[in-house]
Prior knowledge:
The structure is a homodimer. By secondary structure, chain A is α/β, with parallel strands linked by helices.
Amino acid sequence: MVAELSQLRDKIDAVDKQMVALLAERLALVAQVGEVKSQHGLPIYAPDREAAMLASRRDEAAQQGVPPDLIEDILRRTMRESYASENDSGFKCLNPELRPIVIVGGKGQLGKLFAKLFTLSGYDVRILGSQDWDRADEILDGAGMVVVTVPIHLTDGVIRRLGNLPADCILADLTSIKSEPLQAMLEVHQGPVVGLHPMFGPDISSLAKQVIIYCDGRNPESYQWLLEQFQIWGASIERVSAIEHDQGMTLIQALRHFTSFVYGVHLAEEDPRLEQLLAMSSPIYRLELAMVGRLFAQDGSLYGDIIMSSPQNIAMIKRFHQRFGQAIALLENQDKAGFKQAFDQVETWFGDFAGRFLKESQGLLRQANDATHRG
Amino acid sequence: MVAELSQLRDKIDAVDKQMVALLAERLALVAQVGEVKSQHGLPIYAPDREAAMLASRRDEAAQQGVPPDLIEDILRRTMRESYASENDSGFKCLNPELRPIVIVGGKGQLGKLFAKLFTLSGYDVRILGSQDWDRADEILDGAGMVVVTVPIHLTDGVIRRLGNLPADCILADLTSIKSEPLQAMLEVHQGPVVGLHPMFGPDISSLAKQVIIYCDGRNPESYQWLLEQFQIWGASIERVSAIEHDQGMTLIQALRHFTSFVYGVHLAEEDPRLEQLLAMSSPIYRLELAMVGRLFAQDGSLYGDIIMSSPQNIAMIKRFHQRFGQAIALLENQDKAGFKQAFDQVETWFGDFAGRFLKESQGLLRQANDATHRG
């Protein structure tokens, strides 16, 4: 048996070596595609082309008896690597005539990421860090675009110091709230204004498939190139009003972060042994623990700022808390019929999305479990 | 440019075709390994062998300029497919002398899964469905093992009907609570007893890397073969006391399910446009929406049963609700220092796990985002 197994394993080793060589070849070829795209200013991520390519690979796989989902997952994973490496070849500059871009807060993580991407695209980038305000006039002199990316509680004050920009300068911010900064920018500057919210952290490997929300401020025709530049970097752009944005973020950010925070507090007070909890976990609970735990490896002040950035957020959190209390009444009365009725109403509200989410999460939970024993 | 791109794309197509062929070859080789393992009764999942194999593949990849994480992710994904297909070749039977296995509730989803796995392992499996109680004596006659897998609220009653089993018959259950069923089984049957809780749903593709919790009841030496059989199927087994189990499940199941339920109720009442919410989402919020939404594609009564199965669950949920309310006070007082202090305490409680979870979740969130535009 040992001989038989070791012979088979040698063959598997040989197959895997060929697979590594093929991957190296594929990454090199896609890098060449990236260079051609970059020269001609094509977006690094083309959803339709990607979907068509994957569909034909699935067909080929099925013909060879390879599960189509397997090849799709492998290619998606491989493409991510390619997207990440496109940063290396740089991006086409869509507005080569633009005067310098000043990133206010360019020494923060998100500021650094955007500074890098603008530089890779051939723009002249200047940084105005918190220690540089004595030289602010000099740094801002002749700016073509100013991007504000400072902690939320400082944003308004920083924007108010930008009253002397050239009339045609674009003023933008990356804050995770939009109504107030947009209002402040419109008040302080008479030229083009746009509010931006990148829906990702600074630790992403590329902008491919990441979302940047934008809220029009003034003279949108002056910053269309910027939105196209984001798409060349691979991002999806999403236009919403500042009010819709801030409403959405009460759920997407404030309630989410706060619930994770409270769950962390709750766990620390209940004080279960984490090792044992993990050993007993289902894949979905393990995922939940990871999503809560990751919060506490990050900056608490940042999350406090985001959650407390508007009374709307606090009102949303209080409504959730109230509904939580009402639902507890169902449990205390052992009201299984009431529970089922509420459950069914929510099922109806989700409509087709419930089934879609079940399918989507199944793949993800399996991927999470694949990696469970990773060292 | 078009000619240049289409030439490169042809080359990529050719590479991908070779990749599909290699995958077909690899799956076939691993299937042969599976057959050898099955003949000799080796577990389909061998953590040490897998870790060693992955480590050497990572080295080889690095030497060829291929990111090690890429080959590791691809191989993990491919191995999952292999684990799933090992079901086809059957499993070694570790207790060929065992008299018939009766699965009480064997027409439910989980019952069907275990019936299938026992049958694939060469056991004689009989089903006692809810309609079969008039023939129960006949079906249970001479049973070597009886496995109870019925809805929680019926479990106790069903166990109480099993008072006439052969003295050496193993009595087991798969209920998601353990203290009460274990107690009932010990009272009703004088032979070997074991409580089991499979920490996965019936939709898994294989038991590889899935957890089965077991709580010793009586005569553990009689059911060691069963625990080994689970491992041959690929599962990790985890021994805990019934009390520890039920305590863990107040967090792992009751609070988790209930929070998702309330979040669904909250969303339905807030009534945001789901399409727009998804378009604006960060990868982590999209994941959260999917994890909540998936609940409502499933059976509401089942979740109600699990949550209301013990007063401990309700007490845990109430403590969480109370802490949630206390934390809201921080927000209402704009107490950023208090928030930061609580945050830091939780960070300390998580210890090394916070960073570990951050790293683990990063990979998962990237995988989630890879698939974002999947049709």
